[in-house]
Structures are given as structure tokens and as C-alpha cells.
Design a protein that fits this description.
This protein has about 250 residues and is α+β, with helices and mostly antiparallel strands. Helix content is about 35%, strand content about 15%.
Length: about 250
Amino acid sequence: MVFTIGSLRETRQQRSGVAAEVRPAGRPAVRPTVRAGVRRRARADVYATVAEYVALYGWAVVPGARAARGGGGCSCGDAECVRPGAHPLVFAGEIPAGTAPEQAVEAWAQVPGAAVLLPVGRSFDVIDVAEASGRRALVRLERMGLRLGPVLLTPTGRAQFFVAPGAAAELPHLLYRMGWDDAELDLRCLGPGDHVTAPPSDLGGHGQVSWLRAPLPDCVPQPPEARLLLGTLAYISHRDSTAAYA
């Protein structure tokens, strides 16, 4: 079977209910069949998303560990895992950026149930702030008319802004130049060696990651330079941090 971005999107967007089951009168529906249908649609959704990430957006994708609901044990099998459900699987290979959709689907089928992780430091770095600060900053940045990249929202209350690679290395200097180097900030930058969990995956058993600002499917420009967003993010983060201790 040949897959394309269009066909995968159609599969992912199909949200019709499970077809009614033909059965003798009076016999109840078989619930496992319904659950199986839901699982199949969920798998198709993940396959389509992975294919879009690598083929359309130009992001590499790494299969990640999963954790039990509520932040329990990690699927990596290490009882002392310090990042349950939030790290790559050591035995699973990366799907490189630019992989054809059908090849991406085939590769992901080899790691059923894996979380979708995006390696940071290649196509983008990430500025991570508290969710409330991120939401307020995003509104202000959009009103300023700045070109923005995608923004992730984690179930642990963090907003993650995609910015141009190199931001993590430049962050201390940028904060110093802007006068925020010694301020109280709930802000950090992720760079090479880090990963972010991407939709539609669960983060460490705490819930599903979502897009606060989704990537644009028809235009994938280079993420904005960190310096264009950092002043606003630092200001709002500082204001919110100060208010929390007032």
C-alpha cells in the first residue's frame, strides 16, 4: 500500500463511529470490537502524524518510552528510571527528517505504543515557560505581528516555544544583554541532546501533549530567532513569578 500525506490526513481526520455490528436480535454489541476500532483509529492517527512531522515539517522523530497513568513506572523497564515516559527508547532507531511517508509509517509500525519524541537542537530549539505565562506571552506576541513558530502545551503546565537552533547556547548572553540575567524567571531553553514529547503522545503518564499554536501545514518557515521572543517571554515570566511570591 502506498501512503501519501493527503491519504494519511484523511485517515487521521476520519472520526466516524464504529460501524454497527450485525448480530441476532437481542444480543448485545461486543464491546471489545468497539475498543479495537478505537485503537485502530488511534494508531492510524499516530502514523499520519509521524509521517507529517518527518515528510512535511522536516523534523526527525524518535520513538520514546511510555509511563503508567499518573506518572508510574517506565516502559524502559528500569525501576530507577529518572525520566519515566519522557526519554528515547535505546533500542529504537530514529526516523530522519525527510523520510517518505510510507517509509515513516513502516518504521513506526515496528515500535507499537511508543511515544512521539522530537529531538531538539536541529530544526529548532525550545524556550520553556510556565503555561500561564506562555499563554499571555503568545497573545502579546501575536498582537505585535511577529512571525512565530509552533508552541507545545504539556499536561504538566509548561508552554514550549519553538525557536531557531542555537538559542540554548545563546540564552545566557541574550538574557544578559536584555537585563534579565539576574531576574527571577521561570524560563529555560532546551537544545542539543534534549527531546520534547509531541502530539498525540502522552507525557510521562500525566496526560496528552497538545499544540497551543499548531505548525502550519502549508508553510514551514525557519522558526523565529529567540531574541525576537525572549524579551516578552522574560518580562511576563518575571512578572508572574514576582506576583506568585507577593
